[in-house]
Design a protein that fits this description.
By secondary structure, the protein is α/β, with parallel strands linked by helices. Helix content is 48%, strand content 16%. It has 2 domains: 2-110 and 293-342, no CATH class; 120-290 and 354-419, Vaccinia Virus protein VP39 (Rossmann fold), CATH 3.40.50. The strands form 2 sheets. Strands 3, 4, 5, 6, 7, 8, 9, 10 and 11 form a 9-stranded mixed sheet that branches. Strand 10 and strand 11 form a beta hairpin. The longest helix has 20 residues, at 75-94. It is globular and about 70 Å long. It starts with a helix and ends with a strand. One of its GO terms (cellular component) is nucleus. Pfam families: GRAS (PF03514).
């Protein structure tokens, strides 16, 4: 493959100019197959890692023509397009002069997913489109309800990226608790990873009051507390009981939903140690079941190919092509892939680095946590949720972990833990 790219040998069709002056790729359809595309992506990654600009440009040029010929009409072509944009962004960041061909491969400029943010109503539609988020909400809420049973007060420290969409369902369930609901406090950090879904500033400012009004309508007393902290300072603030305003007698729960993958791998143990020091009665962790934290670019691209087709394929099944919410989720997914490919290899603040559920479970046990599982009642509730969505979604249990699946492939895991 490398020799073919360098020599322009017979395996690669020759380009010619189209009527509009753009470069066309004669016979490109012959190259549009999974193994060939994967080879090209991995060779491009290896070239960028070795700073072989010429080979990287050639690989991106071929990939660009393959993507252009497919017109983005399949989940695989959309995945390839997103990976290509990530490679171009990385080339622009790491190479002294990536060249005009690399810039052309990027295609027309694209806005960041979410733009200026969506409304609260649109956010609910975004979350409801697939069970990608609701799966973790449902399982985690079930574990929280069990941990809070019989307790007069419940305090949830919420580390999530979905703007408190998890909590109306929990509040409704607490309102129906025999003997009456507990007093509820929800603490959220002011800073969150700058990733989709992004909420419009006007709606974000009203999150607390709206949630409190909803709780009041259900007969639940809610105290919504915003922790004034930057992402980089989160571990130190979690170590500060006064900053969290912890109170005696309350059941403390730390809920971590799609958050850990935005913490640099080298800082995750420190964050979990800070959580462990709080002595919570429960810690819930939900995230994508993917291994994308390797320092090797080629390994991360292979991981993207192995994992990120899932949501593209599910969206192709679950929503029409003209769906605004689908377009937002596909744009968010493309942004995520660009972060995996183009971000700092050390897992810096701007990079997204997932680790699979099995490895996360090992990390939790090393940091002094024991898995507590979910139970059949929670599993039944999850199955009811999946019954509201397209065929293809499923759930499996691995030790104390529940995993959302799409066509049998692991997509999102959720776990529940207590200090050893």
């Amino acid at each position: 493959m490398e020799q073919e790219l360098r020599s322009g040998g017979p395996a690669l069709p020759r380009p010619h100019s189209g009527s509009g002056g753009s470069i066309c790729f004669s016979g490109a359809a012959a190259l549009v197959d999974g193994p060939r595309i994967q080879q090209l992506l991995l060779h491009c990654a290896a070239a960028l890692e070795s700073k072989d600009v010429t080979l990287a440009q050639q690989a991106m040029w071929v990939l660009n023509n393959i993507v252009g010929s497919s017109q983005g009409d399949t989940p695989n072509s959309r995945l390839t397009s997103a990976l290509l944009r990530g490679l171009v962004a990385r080339a622009c960041r790491t190479c002294v002069s990536p060249g005009s061909s690399a810039e052309a491969a990027a295609g027309p400029g694209r806005s960041r997913a979410g733009g200026n943010g969506i409304s609260a109503t649109e956010l609910a539609e975004y979350v409801d489109l697939t069970p990608w988020h609701r799966f973790g909400f449902t399982a985690s809420n079930g574990a929280i309800l069990r941990a809070a049973a019989g307790r007069p007060a419940l305090h949830v420290v919420d580390l999530s990226v979905t703007h408190c969409m998890q909590w109306p369902t929990l509040i409704d369930a607490l309102s129906k608790r025999a003997g009456g609901p507990p007093a509820l406090r929800i603490s959220v950090p002011r800073a969150r990873p700058a990733v989709p879904p992004l909420l419009a500033a006007s709606d974000a400012a009203l999150l607390g009051p709206r949630l409190a009004n909803f709780a009041k309508s259900r007969g639940v007393r809610l105290d919504f507390h915003v922790i004034d902290v930057k992402n980089a300072e989160l571990a130190s603030v979690l170590s500060d009981r006064e900053a969290l305003e912890l109170r005696d007698g309350e059941a403390l729960v730390v809920n971590c939903h799609s958050w850990l993958r935005h913490v640099a791998p080298g800082r995750r143990d420190g964050l979990l140690d800070a959580v462990r020091a709080l002595e919570p009665c429960l810690v819930t962790v939900t995230d994508e079941d993917a291994d994308l934290d390797s320092p090797s670019l080629a390994s991360r691209i292979a991981g993207c190919l192995e994992f990120h087709w899932i949501l593209f394929d599910a969206l192709d099944t679950c929503a029409p092509r003209d769906s605004t919410r689908r377009a937002e989720q596909e744009a968010a997914l493309a942004q995520k892939i660009e972060s995996v490919v183009a971000g700092d290899d050390g897992g810096g603040a701007a990079a997204e680095r997932s680790e699979c559920g099995a490895r996360l479970s090992e990390r939790m046990r090393r940091r002094g946590f024991d898995g507590v599982g979910f139970g059949e009642e929670v599993a039944a509730e999850v199955r009811r949720l999946l019954g509201e969505h397209a065929n293809g979604w499923g759930v499996k249990t691995e030790e104390d972990m529940m995993v959302l699946t799409w066509k049998g492939h692991g997509a999102v895991f959720t776990t529940a833990w207590a200090p050893s």
